[in-house]
Amino acid sequence: MDGVNLTPLKQIHNPKGDVFHAMKKSDTNFYGFGEAYFSFINKDDIKGWKKHTKMTLNLIVPVGKIEFVIYDENKNDFLNVKLSKNNYQRLTILPGLWMAFRGYNRHNLLLNLANIEHNLTEAMNIDLNKIEYKW
């Protein structure tokens, strides 16, 4: 889907604790840094729909398993991506696409490395039932 990229990330295994890479400024999908935040999502809960008008999302799931659904309303097209430790990638979503996500495990954590700081006026939220998708 245009505006969405998946980037495989390195995991370095260490007997004292593994290292999970997230992003470097030399990465292809680095559009600058505004803020980083973690978000938890409970098992079977769904957060969304949200569309950013300026923010680029860089989503990483180091704990649990999260299903992301991206919707391009101009093309009436959906993309479904499940990220976890076993499918450790960075999901980059450019502005203008709707996104929602669901937690699969008891503990699910995502990291967003956003290119701009959070601004309430640059994002739109709608109820989950406003975009028809079979979860």
Structural write-up:
The chain is mostly beta strands and 135 residues long. The chain has one domain: Jelly Rolls (Sandwich). It is 0% helix and 48% strand. It contains no helices and twelve strands. The protein has strands at residues 4-8, 11-12, 19-20, 35-40, 46-52, 57-63, 65-72, 77-84, 89-93, 98-103, 109-114, 123-125. A five-stranded antiparallel sheet has the order 1-9-6-11-4, with no helix packed on it. A five-stranded antiparallel sheet has the order 8-7-10-5-12, with no helix packed on it. A two-stranded antiparallel ribbon has the order 2-3. The mean pLDDT is 97.
- Give, in spatial order, the strands making up the sheet with the most strands: 1-9-6-11-4
Helix content: under 10%
Radius of gyration: 15 Å
- Alpha carbon gap, first and last residue: 19 Å
Please give a handful of descriptors for the protein shown:
5-stranded antiparallel beta sheet; Jelly Rolls; 135 residues; 0% helix; mainly beta
